Amino acid sequence: xxxxxxxxxxxxxxxxxxxxxxxxxxxxxxxxxxxxxxxxxxxxxxxxxxxxxxxxxxxxxxxxxxxxxxxxxxxxxxxxxxxxxxxxxxxxxxxxxxxxxxxxxxxxxxxxxxxxxxxxxxxxxxxxxxxxxxxxxxxxxxxxxxxxxxxxxxxxxxxxxxxxxxxxxxxxxxxxxxxxxxxxxxxxxxxxxxxxxxxxxxxxxxxxxxxxxxxxxxxxxxxxxxxxxxxxxxxxxxxxxxxxxxxxxxxxxxxxxxxxxxxxxxxxxxxxxxxxxxxxxxxxxxxxxxxxxxxxxxxxxxxxxxxxxxxxxxxxxxxxxxxxxxxxxxxxxxxxxxxxxxxxxxxxxxxxxxxxxxxxxxxxxxxxxxxxxxxxxxxxxxxxxxxxxxxxxxxxxxxxxxxxxxxxxxxxxxxxxxxxxxxxxxxxxxxxxxxxxxxxxxxxxxxxxxxxxxxxxxxxxxxxxxxxxxxxxxxxxxxxxxxxxxxxxxxxxxxxxxxxxxxxxxxxxxxxxxxxxxxxxxxxxxxxxxxxxxxxxxxxxxxxxxxxxxxxxxxxxxxxxxxxxxxxxxxxxxxxxxxxxxxxxxxxxxxxxxxxxxxxxxxxxxxxxxxxxxxxxxxxxxxxxxxxxxxxxxxxxxxxxxxxxxxxxxx
Length: 651
What we know:
Blueprint: H1 9-15, H2 18-32, H3 38-54, E1 59-60, E2 63-64, H4 67-85, H5 93-108, H6 113-131, H7 143-153, H8 155-158, H9 182-187, H10 190-199, H11 215-226, H12 232-244, H13 248-251, H14 254-259, H15 262-269, H16 271-282, H17 290-309, H18 313-338, H19 340-358, H20 363-383, H21 391-422, H22 426-452, H23 458-485, H24 490-503, H25 506-535, H26 543-570, H27 573-601, H28 624-649
Antiparallel strand pairs: 1-2
Helix pairs in contact: 1-2, 2-23, 3-4, 3-6, 3-10, 4-5, 5-6, 7-11, 10-11, 12-16, 15-16, 17-18, 17-20, 18-19, 18-25, 19-20, 21-22, 21-25, 21-26, 21-27, 22-25, 23-25, 23-27, 23-28, 27-28
């Protein structure tokens, strides 16, 4: 999360003048609203699974067999009920609260183990269905490395084979978990195991490893111990089922593998899916490839078409949105590195499906749009199935990623710095440098958080890009006209030449700082994602060309920067103001178009397509909403520009 956005929102009211307070505050609120309850949710999953698995050690046939264990059950169910009550409001939360209260009452009544397990299973399923998956592995767990970790970190207590018979665990109460116990295996999700490894279990010998092991290592251990009870026969049966039964790859998604316990899958999908889940716990790499996103996207598109044909328009729209955000969006950058034209065409096809559903164009038209999008998906799968990019393609993609994304930010920052240097505004110059350097740091931290700390979905990325783009457009529009309104004021220009740091009030200086920040921040995160995707498409023989492309782009941007400074420093201050204000106004229109397009891709705004080509470098995406916003911005700009000229001529 960007550092600037975790400030108290009141700070924005101090730093920014009235014209830009609202956009800045809205942006801060957006980032403050990211799912902060994720850690609470994982703790609740851990609690409910612990109760379901260990209740048998506390109560047997209505009698307490271990007062200590029973007291723990009472404590955990009370904590569970309190934790559920503190979750954000959502459809289904009341059902979840009733289930948690029922579990607490069942423990009080010393109900039988089947009743406790049924309630625990329902709570776990409802948590996931209402609030989603709070965390999940980012890449295929390295189970060979996990085996080594297990022997060094876990075997002393849990035993070399995971049977709970390690020498250090002999005196522990309760005893260490026997991971080979099939009954315990059936009741534990990988999410619950990961949470236990991360946070430990209070009052037991299970220590927390959140500070000593990386998230990748903790997920690897969760998969490793979570597969201890899977027999060779089950794994072989599951492999056959996963690869041959139609629809199995879609129903056993990564979310299902992580969040559902085997008993959940057995109850909902049957024995074949239960065996396939065991196979995937042993071989998670089967799910960690680009094809799983394509398969998911294709299945969601098919679901959207069927739902619309059955008259369920809302479900059709949700499925179509999921097809893009949960499927295609995850391989979009990889596809862009291989075939940019295909990526843009496929992206348009997905939005066209949503448009047909939103405009209620009929089952036949929706079916045609779905078929077109699925054809584009098949082409994407073929494009991504090759052996990587050639040296020339790697260099070209690497160069244009950085040059394209960096040019817009460079123009804004260079314009601001040229202005402050021409006027010897030392304080303002320092603030602008602070803005773009903070943006680099914030972009890197956001990328790190998205890959290591929080789940940053396709929708979250599009929302980030969309809101940042719209806010940046508003701020650039404001600064552009601020410069234009003062470009012919001789009294003001004479004053600013001598005392610009005094002429620029603290509010205006912070506006310039924020402009530098938001202009760079909105580009840096996307640039990192592009390079991350490009890296997955290069081979060891072409990796060097990726860095050659980066070096060439940096050199080219440096040339542009030097030329901009030299030309800008030679221009009269009044002319420089007018030219710079025009550049900022044009960039604001470009960013506005891109921001609206991102919000449309996130499903926040609807999209009505126009039959004209996309011009991405101009921010022109052919939808009624995007074009209307840009036309309105241009018209408003022309009116204000002419009015400003008229006022200045009258002075």
